[in-house]
Amino acid sequence: MEVWLWALCGLFALIILLLILKLYLMRKSADEICKAVTDRLAAESNVLIDISSRDSRMRRLADALNLQLRRLRSERNRYQQGDTELKESVTNISHDLRTPLTAICGYLDLLSQEALPEQARRYLGFIKNRTTAMKQLTAELFRYSIVRSTETEQPEQLTLNRVLEESLASYYAAMCQKQITPVISIPEQPVRRYLEPTALTRIFENILSNVLKYSDGDLSVIMDSDGKISFSNKAAGLTPVLTGQLFNRFYTVETGRNSTGLGLSIAKLLTERMGGQITAKYQDETLSIQVWFPA
């Protein structure tokens, strides 16, 4: 009786060990599949998932995932090809439009020098404004497509204080023309970040250009020691809902009817590409755009 009991216990122990081994191998296979899927999604690789387990169910799971990875790779390639073709088309179209629009502007300038009736001169002014707006739009389209398609620059150690001061100085004449006296607060202690020089300058310039479109005559630029920069101005024509759409491509509001709607979109694209954050909020009829590049 005792022999049969010990034999039965031994059998149970063997079965438990086999189950533990089976469970270990399945967990190992699951970990291998999980790691392989993560690696394949992180890198554009043609290598398929391969596991060490001989278990038929786990291998069927790996085969099913390989099938989905092939489909995902195919869709990704189609998207990238279409995206590339779209960027090239936008670049070519905007480039081709600039030449005739420049010629049209030239002929309109010549026409404005002729003796015209008051009504015809008024209509000519409308045509010139719309042609200038189209010219600006094609130029922004060209810049936007270039920003989207070009490779990133090599980051350099920049002093945010200095770049911000240079950008403000470059817009001094435009601010004076709009009778804007900015209130500026920039710390004396240098705030340094590793960023792309051209991209950072473009971000500041696009934000300041937006201020000139929407400001009611004021501007406040405040930078703290952590590198957070806030551009604030009164903008009675905006609402919180409209403010939430300022970063959308081609979106404009009535007070910015001569704008293309691409300036802040480009600023957002460049900021996020360099690991920064850009937000906009509207409170008490004041628009605030904040830019921050974490250390």
Automatic annotation (TrEMBL):
Transmembrane segments: 6-25
InterPro entries: BphY/WalK/GraS-like (IPR050351), HATPase_C_sf (IPR036890), HATPase_dom (IPR003594), His_kinase_dom (IPR005467), HisK_dim/P_dom (IPR003661), HisK_dim/P_sf (IPR036097), Sig_transdc_His_kin-like_C (IPR004358)
Pfam families referenced in this protein's UniProt entry, alphabetically: HATPase_c (PF02518), HisKA (PF00512)
Known catalytic reactions: ATP + protein L-histidine = ADP + protein N-phospho-L-histidine
UniProt-listed GO biological process terms: cellular response to phosphate starvation
Gene Ontology CC terms, in alphabetical order: plasma membrane
Domain of life from the UniProt record: Bacteria
Principal cellular location given in the protein's record: membrane
Domain Histidine kinase: 92-295
Enzyme Commission designation: 2.7.13.3
One annotated GO molecular function: phosphorelay sensor kinase activity
Entry keywords, A to Z: Kinase, Membrane, Phosphoprotein, Transferase, Transmembrane, Transmembrane helix, Two-component regulatory system
Subcellular location: Membrane
Leader sequence segment: none
Protein known as: histidine kinase
